[in-house]
Amino acid sequence: MGIESRLIWMDGEFIPFADATVHVLSHTLHYGLGVFEGIRAYQQPDGSPGIFRLDEHLERLVDSARMCHIPLRYTVEDLREACLETLRVNGFKSAYIRPLVFLGSGAMGLGTRNNQVHVCIATWEWGAYLGSEGLEKGVRVACSSFSRHHVNANLQRAKVVGHYVNSILARYEANDNGFDEAIMLDTNGLVAEGTGENIFLVRRNVVTTPPVINILGGITRDTVIEILRHDGFDIREQQFGRDALYIADEMFMVGTAAEVTPIREVDRREIGPPGKFTKHIQQVYNDGVHGRVPWMIERGWITLA
Ligand SMILES: *Cc1c(COP(=O)(O)O)cnc(C)c1O
Asked: Which neighbouring-strand residues pair with 39?
């Protein structure tokens, strides 16, 4: 189950996996201006693959490009077809889908605007991002010494390639210190998110998550909020400091890659095994992405390939 597939969609056509290469002078490779998405497809009750919240992901991709002055020649509809076709030609039932918009070679330098914009869509079979044991028992996390980007240093709402240097530095630091994942605080010291996941905590039956100000507004985050509202629980979008983490009854991280991953320890303070909110959300999310939750289907959250 490597990062492999038969074909990759590149600028409107399918090319063999091994031939999907780029020039070393591709602009994005040097400076990081490019945008991407992370999407998952899950096998549905009828056996076919269904992509979870595909349109929301593609709308965010288009928005990300727009925020970055990257002209895209494809619409959400074009990209929807391309994602579905990529899944079909590779024959996957459950897979991760990675559209990437990047700037090609031609000119170099930061002021360049005329390099060709390329779009590729790859897919591969990808298991639990933070490990299957983490998904079941919870992960151990630590607040990072690296701050999340200041709101005015980058475009936090966009999934920009270069943003992930900050995330990688935090993730390496956490892993080198023996933790599974990092929690990133913003430049005011308030809790922002994980390196590629949003964060939720539960205290006294109230679920809280930071508002979308200096974090990436995750589609999984939104899904969790909708699950809580649908099931009649209190959900607050509110900022909090690391102290709130230490007295949480439950905590979990969410993202397309990480799905709903419980947190069992933060900064060497025990939170405990996954609690009732975490387990409930994990269950509903898992059922939902597999096409077993009627209200999610009614909202058009599953696109069958
Ligand atoms: C992609 C990402 C998330 C999760 O977003 P989803 O839409 O739920 O996949 C959260 N934080 C960061 C920094 C991300 O890049």
From this structure: 97
Give catalytic status of residue 159 as yes or no: yes
């530095």: which residue's tokens?
169
Query: How far is the C-alpha of 210 from the C-alpha of 198, rounded, in Å?
Result: 8
Q: What would the DSSP string read from start to end of 35-76?
A: EE--EEEEE-TTSSEEEETHHHHHHHHHHHHHHTT---S--H
Which tokens hold the place of 210? 């930071």
Q: What is this structure's pTM? A: 0.97
CB-ligand 1 contact for 261 (6 Å cutoff):
no
Residue 197 alpha carbon, nearest atom of ligand 1: 10
Query: What are the tens digits of pLDDT across the range 32-65?
Result: 999 999 999 999 999 999 999 999 999 999 999 9
Residue nearest to atom 1 of ligand 1 (CA): 196
User: Looking at ligand 1, which atom is closest to the CA of residue 39?
Assistant: 9
Task: Decide: 198 in ligand 1 pocket, CB within 6 A.
Answer: yes
CB-ligand 1 contact for 148 (6 Å cutoff):
no
Q: Which of 82-91, 131-140, 162-171, 263-272 has the lowest mean pLDDT?
A: 131-140
